């Protein structure tokens, strides 16, 4: 018999319920009422709205465009070939521009605020942002960038990055970025596939109080990127960096100096015209180049910001992210909701652990976005912002990157703020957005993602392809949605794209997450389905084990894999201990007892091994598959995708795993 799921609540009561006044004032309520009136429907609650958004998807997405006041022309056809996945074509007659919609709604006052740890602080008005975009637009044109060309960037999350992206999009060109801590091979593995015309990069960047000069790395990268005509270096750590050793190197100021600010122009493009190229993690080979379209990205982000996150004009929106993670693309679309963007670069705990909460207080943050790992680390570090900070403007906290455990939910309400909408959200680079996320008009239950996104026909499938509730299954989406990728770069017949999402269940998007529908109508994510453990044929989500282990004060972090052993699979648990501790028999017994009592005997690891570090991607996600390959002696094809590839050495040829 199944043990209680890690997503089940700690009590039979929700952790938070929005007030009637908050529900009445929400964008979601306004949209639901407007849709009811427009279509003569009785959409009396969120469930009714959701059902209509899926069943009447063509009307839903068009009405969202109209209600949000977006600029462009959707044309007369909402969906062509709507019975095909892939192959469905949303708004095939549309004409629009992403940057136009961002700048049309950007606040006239402060549009962008920037903190780089305690080293740099800057702010731009909406007028200053538009002026910078205008000058960059002209400079990019002069450098030969036009519709469909690629502009690449190795950049921090700073105002110049935003301006460069918007200038690129204004021309109908395609933006692709990664963070400056990537190694040279990781950068060329990505950008070498897409042949960019212009490259943006800083002279250096800050992290944990130290500066890191990357000019030599950029010079090396450019030897592998022959299509780059100009390498624009953003002065960041140095006011006047020397760029003479960089082929095509020009400082930001010199790049835009010949051009006076004017009203930006906008090249309107087709709905599916490429806007962003993002990348898979690349731990099993060269990263896949995932191409996202203009209209689908815009509509999905507007929906998620305005309806699911209740972002309103004048709000101040923050997400801790790098430019190598899709949450940066998600964050900057907040301009379309009229929000001020709060950008941050550097360590989230520099210099004393409180800087992001300091930022929230100082800048009147309304939405605080972060990762589950940040919340877990804040708790392990003993941070209690509820005692040390006001956080009076903060209405919502979003978490993604990995499953947020019920105890972490409890920590937020106990130690950060009692009256806050905590939204655990999940989607991915694949759709540059979310499948399941928050509902500001509904209760929050410990361990649960509140709802499937409007317009997203989400289900959990068993192995036979049947939808299930109350049991674990594959996360699927059974109907087309606008933010499906245009495809993969350099995949002309779409074979790689189809293989990635549509081979297991024909005409259904299979996302690769292990998920369960709850009795409250919410969802629990158990991690990647390709990392699911299968001892004795019983499927176990790694998140179930992490929930138990990471509550122990002795353990900072853990990673769990299945080791092929004696014709079956056995569970192996690696743990990072607090400084000064050792993994003795007493601690092993404590770990096993907790897992057995709170999960099941099958969850108990056959071996527990202490390590000093756990490999993770550059967006902070633990790489279970890379650990599994290291344990089995298999090659790991692209360690450049990892932030700390040397950590893998600890997992190879461990004598503890040989018997």
Automatic annotation (TrEMBL):
<dbReference type="InterPro" id="IPR005914">
    <property type="entry name" value="Acac_CoA_synth"/>
</dbReference>
<dbReference type="InterPro" id="IPR025110">
    <property type="entry name" value="AMP-bd_C"/>
</dbReference>
<dbReference type="InterPro" id="IPR020845">
    <property type="entry name" value="AMP-binding_CS"/>
</dbReference>
<protein>
    <submittedName>
        <fullName>Acetoacetate--CoA ligase</fullName>
        <ecNumber>6.2.1.16</ecNumber>
    </submittedName>
</protein>
<feature type="domain" description="AMP-binding enzyme C-terminal">
    <location>
        <begin position="551"/>
        <end position="621"/>
    </location>
</feature>
<feature type="domain" description="Acetyl-coenzyme A synthetase N-terminal">
    <location>
        <begin position="46"/>
        <end position="101"/>
    </location>
</feature>
<dbReference type="Pfam" id="PF13193">
    <property type="entry name" value="AMP-binding_C"/>
</dbReference>
<dbReference type="InterPro" id="IPR000873">
    <property type="entry name" value="AMP-dep_synth/lig_dom"/>
</dbReference>
<dbReference type="Pfam" id="PF16177">
    <property type="entry name" value="ACAS_N"/>
</dbReference>
<keyword id="KW-0547">Nucleotide-binding</keyword>
<dbReference type="InterPro" id="IPR032387">
    <property type="entry name" value="ACAS_N"/>
</dbReference>
<keyword id="KW-0067">ATP-binding</keyword>
<dbReference type="InterPro" id="IPR042099">
    <property type="entry name" value="ANL_N_sf"/>
</dbReference>
<dbReference type="GO" id="GO:0030729">
    <property type="term" value="F:acetoacetate-CoA ligase activity"/>
</dbReference>
<comment type="similarity">
    <text>Belongs to the ATP-dependent AMP-binding enzyme family.</text>
</comment>
<dbReference type="Pfam" id="PF00501">
    <property type="entry name" value="AMP-binding"/>
</dbReference>
<keyword id="KW-0436">Ligase</keyword>
<dbReference type="InterPro" id="IPR045851">
    <property type="entry name" value="AMP-bd_C_sf"/>
</dbReference>
<feature type="domain" description="AMP-dependent synthetase/ligase">
    <location>
        <begin position="104"/>
        <end position="480"/>
    </location>
</feature>
